[in-house]
Write a structure and sequence with these properties.
Blueprint (H helix, E strand, L loop, with lengths): L3 H25 L14 E6 L6 E4 L10 H10 L17 H12 L8 E3 L2 E3 L4 E3 L3 H6 L5
Antiparallel strand pairs: 1-2, 1-3, 4-5
The structure holds zinc ion (ZN).
Length: 144
């Protein structure tokens, strides 16, 4: 299994990758105004208990994204994907957590949602960690 440390290491590396990517893209297009939106809002690493493989995902629109079946059902249990519900500011399916978990579940179809492990979630622009939101806590209620 991936230890907490390995999950944190993955997300720390991912922060570097994201920051490097933004820097390169800004240098390649110096005439374009820099925006906060150049960065994904949040990234998080995810794994499952019987594997050492760690994946990271970033917050992005769930429109045109097809989630793994079990995860899709969980998300739709909150409200339709792409909409908001009372008690959470985030759009259902837009968070880094379901995007990262989706990568894990598609690679490991036998992994159950209650076997997922997450790193802390980070804002790559500032490298500060952020709390999991209500949608994510409800989606991954066994583990978050
Ligand atoms: Zn969330």
């Amino acid at each position: 299994m991936a230890t907490k440390k390995e999950l944190e290491r993955c997300v720390t590396n991912a922060i570097k990758v994201v920051r490097h990517r933004v820097k390169q893209s800004r240098q390649a297009h110096p005439q374009v105004k820099h925006k906060i939106k150049d960065y994904p809002a949040i990234i998080v690493a995810c794994s499952y208990r019987s594997s050492k493989k760690v994946f990271w995902g970033q917050s992005e629109s769930p429109v045109n994204h097809i989630y793994e079946d079990r995860l899709r059902k969980r998300l739709e249990g909150l409200a339709p994907i792409g909409t908001k519900r009372p008690g959470c500011d985030n759009t259902i399916g837009s968070c880094a957590e379901p995007h990262a978990a989706d990568l894990v579940l598609k690679k490991a179809p036998r992994c159950n949602l209650n076997k997922l492990q997450f790193s802390r979630a980070y804002r790559p622009r500032t490298a500060k960690h952020k709390r999991y939101c209500r949608n994510c806590k409800d989606t991954f209620h066994e583990v978050l």
